[in-house]
From TrEMBL:
SUPFAM superfamilies: lambda repressor-like DNA-binding domains (SSF47413), Periplasmic binding protein-like I (SSF53822). Residues 11-65 form the HTH lacI-type domain. The lineage of its organism: Bacteria, Bacillati, Actinomycetota, Actinomycetes, Micrococcales. The keyword Transcription applies. It comes from the Bacteria. InterPro entries: HTH_LacI, LacI/GalR-like_sensor, Lambda_DNA-bd_dom_sf, Peripla_BP_I. Pfam families: LacI (PF00356), Peripla_BP_3 (PF13377). Keywords: DNA-binding, Transcription, Transcription regulation. This is LacI family DNA-binding transcriptional regulator. PROSITE patterns: HTH_LACI_1, HTH_LACI_2. CDD domains: HTH_LacI. The keyword RNA-binding does not apply. It comes from Occultella gossypii.
Length: 334
């Protein structure tokens, strides 16, 4: 008698067959994607599986057809809000394709990771492996267990790759310039993060491209108190628009502006990044950039599924960053 993890009896393949009015061999062929089963029988089997909440025994499935119904999703050690959102998107994409997604975290020396991933690939537990961190080149052939790398995090859970895309900085500056702003300043994040360096570089390039004036780049290390001090030290009339590294820095900039008696956005506009929940309720609410982390997770699994099916790597050039304009930005003061 088969038992579930909770101790309750699990339905069997024979019960599915009886409810569907077919043989248990036909149900087995259905589970192995046999194209010879009629559409009517397939429909009845699907209905029976749903009604009984039937789940195939993964171990038996692996032994019979070298299929486990499981995918491995590799992340660096540590946890961030973005990684949880990425995991949600990846899990949904895997589930929709009929797979269970197992998260595997890798730490330790880089040189050891190839061997650890090879061990995962050779274990027979997974049909495919997707990694969101860079990996050394594998020493094993890829014909048995595909390994698809979509590098979005470095070893310390810092964003790289698409997650560090700074293109929305240009959109922020361009729109503020359309609103009459000509004098800008950038309150930057921690340059140990690729995302902070890219936002700084995009800021400088856009200012130069549009012929605007920059008071400069002030390093704030993702810290609100540094942003507050930067605003307090800012010469009068140095800037009417402040582009910050993230919403925490933007909140510090707001506090510094208020301490000087400046109105936001009437006297100075301030932008953030990352869509911190507090930024949506602070008075004024903070203009920010939302990164679609769930989409990043879905893309990673979609690439892996394509590899499993022998299909070309899918192309998706849509940006994942979206600017959300809120109360902290407005026309330049007259």
């Amino acid at each position: 008698m088969s038992q579930s993890a909770s101790g309750t009896r699990r339905p069997t393949i024979r019960e599915v067959a009886r409810l569907a009015g077919v043989s248990h061999q036909t149900v087995s062929r259905f589970l192995h994607d046999d194209p010879r089963i009629s559409e009517q029988s397939q429909a009845r089997i699907r209905t029976a599986i749903e009604q009984l909440d039937y789940r195939p025994n993964l171990v038996a499935r692996a032994m019979r057809g070298h299929k486990t119904g499981r995918l491995a999703f590799i992340l660096p050690t540590g946890t961030t809000v973005s990684s949880l959102e990425i995991l949600a998107g990846a899990t949904t994409a895997a589930h929709d394709a009929g797979f269970i997604l197992d998260v595997v975290t890798l730490g330790g020396p880089v040189a050891q990771r190839a061997g650890r991933v090879d061990d995962l690939a050779e274990s027979g537990l997974f049909e495919g492996i997707a990694s969101l961190m860079p990996l050394p080149e594998s020493r094993r052939p890829q014909d048995r267990t595909p390994i698809v790398i979509s590098p979005e995090y470095d070893d310390q859970m810092r964003s790289i790759g698409e997650l560090a895309d700074a293109a929305p900085v240009a959109e922020l500056i361009e729109h503020l310039a359309d609103l009459g702003h000509r004098r800008f300043v950038h309150l930057a994040g921690d340059y140990a993060h690729t995302s902070a360096r890219r936002r700084r570089d995009m800021y400088l390039a856009t200012i130069e491209r549009l012929g605007l004036h920059s008071h400069g780049v002030i390093d704030c290390d993702w810290r609100a108190e540094r942003a507050e001090k930067a605003m307090l030290d800012l010469p009068a009339h140095a800037a009417t628009a402040v582009i910050t590294g993230n919403d925490v820095v933007a909140a510090g900039a707001l506090r510094g502006a208020f301490a000087r008696g400046w109105r936001v956005p009437e006297d100075v506009s301030i932008t953030g990044w990352d869509n911190n929940k507090l930024g949506a309720v602070l008075p004024p609410t903070i203009t920010t950039v939302i990164m679609d982390h769930e989409r990043v997770g879905r893309r990673a699994i979609t690439r892996l599924l394509a590899a499993l099916n022998g299909e070309p790597d899918p192309v998706d050039n849509e940006p994942i960053g979206t600017v959300v304009w809120r109360e902290s930005t407005g026309p330049a003061p007259s």
